[in-house]
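Retro notes, item 3 of 5
We never archived the inputs for the N-carbamoyl-L-aspartate complex last cycle. Fixing that now. Sequence and ligand:
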Amino acid sequence: MRNDQLITAKQLSRGDIEDVLDRAAEFDADPSAFRDRHADAILGLLFFEPSTRTKMSFETAIKRIGGDTVDMGTVESSSVKKGESLADTARVIEGYADALVLRHPSQGAAKMVGEFVDVPLLNAGDGAGHHPTQTLLDLYTIRENAGLDDLTIGIMGDLKYGRTVHSLAHALTNFDADQHFVSPESLQLPRSVRYDLHESGAMVREHTELDDILPSLDVLYVTRIQRERFPDENEYQEIAGEYGIDLETLEPAKDDLTVMHPLPRVDEIAPEVDDTDYATYFEQAHNGVPVRMALLDQMLEDGQ
Ligand code: NCD
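Structure as it came back at the time:
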C-alpha cells in the first residue's frame, strides 16, 4: 500500500503511530503556529454517509495548516444522484484537490478508490470496515490519559459493525495492551478481525458482561450500536439499550478510569457521567484536530 494512503489501521506500525502522535502533540501545543505550512493546499471531502466530527475536524485541520476544502456535499445534491460511479467521482475531484478524504457505506470502498487516484487518500470510514484516522485520535487520547503500554482496555458495544473498534483493536496490537471485548453474543468481533488479531499475537478475551472486568480497566471504550448496519430492525430492537453505563455501573471502576466513546452516543453513556473525571469523550473528539493536522501534514509532504 502507498504510504500516502491510509486505508486500514492494519498498515500502521508502532513507529508510524508514534510519529503521527508526536507531531500531533506539537500541533496541539500551538495550533496557530503552522498556519502557513500548506498554504493553498486543497482537501477534497467525499462523504457518502453522515458525519459531524470527522468531517468538521478535517476541515478545521486543513484550515489550521493553511489550506482549504472542496466538498462534494451530500449524496442527494451531487452527481452520484445521477448514477455517477464512486471511481469517477473520486477521479474528478482529485483533479481539484491535493488530497482526498472518503467516507462511504461500503466496506472496501477506500481500497477501491485508492486504485484509481494519485493524490493522497484518507479513509474516514468504509461501512463496517475501518476508520483509521479515528484510531489515531483514540490512541492520542489514550496516550495522554492512561499511556499506551501496560494498558488494560475494555472495548464495549457493537464490535461486529463498529469500524472504530476494528481499527483500534488492530492498532493496539502494536503496544503492550490487554484487550477485553464486551458485547452481546450477536455483536461479537467479526471472524476476520478476530483472525487478524490472533495472527498478530493478541489474545482476544470476550465477555458478555462488563462487571466481570470493569475493576481491572484503565480505559473503557464505549461504542454505539450501529443501527444503520443491521439487516433487520428487530435484531437491533432486541439489544438496543442493553449496553449502557451510568454512575452506578461505574462504582467498581478504578478512580482513574478513562471513559472514551468515538461519538455520537445515543444512550450508551448516561449524561450524569459527563461531569465526572472519567469522561474523556469530548476531549477525545477535540483531539481529532491536532491528529488530523499531523496526518494531513505528513500526507501532503509524502504526496509531493
Ligand atoms: C464513528 C463512525 O462514523 O464510525 N463516528 C465517528 O467518526 N466519530 C462512530 C459511530 O458512528 O458510531
